[in-house]
Amino acid sequence: MKTPKRNNRKNFSKSIVFSLVFLVLGFIMAYSYSLSNTNKESEGYTGGAFFEQEERYRKELINQQERNKALRDELQEKQSEVQEYEKSFADGENRYTEYAKEAEELRRYLGLVPVQGNGLKVTLQDGDYNPNSVNPNDYIVHESHVFQVINELYISGAEAISINGQRIHGNSYIVCTGPVITVDGVQYPAPFVIEAIGEPEVLSSSMRLSGGIMDQLVNDNIIVTLDEGLIIKMPALLTES
């Protein structure tokens, strides 16, 4: 009777051991499966997030490149505008300088400002008296002689002209009255000194041309004297207030 009891106890003990073993094995397998799934989910999540972040950076980079290109284009446009402005400003300065020079020349021509410069002095004197001459006007300086000299000097490039120190202009009138001439209402006796500001050599050469003004004056018994290389000063024209 004792032997069967012993066998029953052994079988019960084995059953408990096997049950524990299977329980442990089941727990280990379940844990391993759960851990495996967790790792897979984690790996999947990490890969997706990295891809999204990379895509976002790529889009930001493209946007920044486009923005930089737009800024470069805008900068180039502004630089072109600045260059155009500088060019127009320089042109404006050049035009202003030209206008100022023209205005100064016009004032000089109109006699509104005093002038000074190199030039030529032409002196006209009555010829020596000839008792055999029937007409005394044959040896007197007339306004036509003065006009001849003035016109020749202007043609030769004279910038300003005066007679006996009085500045003349485009509307000046000269009248001969016996031994004197009247310039814009002011009388002057002989000799008549005509001064011109300009290139002295050019003015003198023009006066001395063969068959020119000087020869004509000498033929009319007028004494002509030329003085070159002088510094000539002329006042401004007298204007009515």
From TrEMBL:
Alphabetized InterPro entries for the sequence: DUF881 (IPR010273)
This protein's UniProt keywords: Coiled coil, Membrane, RNA-binding, Transmembrane, Transmembrane helix
Molecular function as annotated in GO: RNA binding
The UniProt record lists the keyword Transmembrane helix: yes
The keyword RNA-binding belongs to this UniProt entry's keyword annotation: yes
TM region(s), chain numbering: 12-33
A UniProt-annotated Pfam family: DUF881
Coiled coil segments of this chain: 54-95
Taxonomy, superkingdom: Bacteria
Family affiliation: Belongs to the UPF0749 family.
Name the record gives this protein: DUF881 domain-containing protein
Organism of provenance: Planococcus donghaensis
